[in-house]
User: Fold this.
Amino acid sequence: MPEDREFVSRFEQDVLPHLGAAFNLARWILGNEQDAEDMVQEAYLRAYKYFAGYQGGSSRSWLLAIVRNACYTWLQQNKAQLQADDLDEELYSGEGDMLDPEVILQLSNQKDLVHRAIELIPTEFRELIILREMEGLSYKEIALVTSLPIGTVMSRLARGRQYLKDNLLRLGEEDHSHGS
Amino acid sequence: MDHEIVQLLLNAYIDDELDAENSLEIETHLKSCAICSQHHRVLLALKQAAKLPALVYAVPPGLESRLRASTRRANRPKSFLPQLQWRWIAPAALVTILLLLILVVFGRSWFQPSQNALLAQEVQSAHVRSLMANHLTDVTSTDQHTVKPWFDGKLDYSPPVINLASDGFPLIGGRLDYIDNRPVAALIYQRNKHYINVFVWPAGNNTSLALNASTINGYNLIHWSQGGMTFWAVSDVSPQDLQTFVHLLQQNLQ
Assistant:
């Protein structure tokens, strides 16, 4: 039993520091607090089951991969359809040629606007924004968490940022016209 | 440099993910290109937006202590069951446990385990568990080049992974499971609406392509060894379908 206590203690030390990242990721993927709590609980137990085989490396990436996969499995089984993953690898089309960065900067400070804009990004692009900007993972770590090649990480992130820009502009306009 | 490519690489550039040589090229390009320079500033603004601290959701109160409690529950040794948990158990659960104990006591005399039979039971249980708790796959992909490397670092061997979609048995993904006290690879296939779990782990140099078939609780199992690995396929598809599947797998693995 002392060995078990030690095992649990080691597990908690390695994993609990990343609870915040795990919950934030699950919450942004699943869209509500209860589901996110359930998924984090399930991922935590799964991580515990696998901990004996954990071979080192970033425990944060390791845990987030488990959380992320749990969320996607759950989404597949519980939602009518996941956003279709067309492997949207098209390069940025440059339609923002005439876009004034100042406009985006103005919108970028409005927390509620940005929040809604991110919510509207399709799931598999949104999760990259979360992992990169909110959790500060490197491309390599994101590749580990998502099982995507690094090139895909970059192109999906670019696409996610494009969605964010479009959503910010659209929501910003809607707000403006409702406000006046 | 092509503008479209620059604008894609600008993402890696603002994330400090570009190597020195490409960074320099980008910087040089930005100095003389107004369009890309503007795009650069737009990306920086988007980055700033997504980094607003208020966007991060806080961990709900109580979650951490619930998680700590959950592993301590999972860890509690079963031998204490009759004594420690007595006062926590409602009468109905008490009766259930008594019945289970009686079943175990008398069940021992009926049950004549052999090594393979024990393994078969474990495999069947693992299969059912994977169907129950939303835990069919850890990595969901039909691409064997995604599923196979996913096991790197999680197992001390690399399982053979093949997609048989063109034969009507698409690969759904992979999962880490536990059989016989060791972590093993589970590969999940689909046949119409049914799932097939294929558990595979290293097992010496025997190759016994002869199929060892059995049925447990209505589930069909087939077991064989090949190429230094031992395989267990389990599913509720018909025995014929499972046999077809196993033959396809054997052929493709040779």
About this structure: Chain A touches chain B through 71 residues (CB under 8 Å).
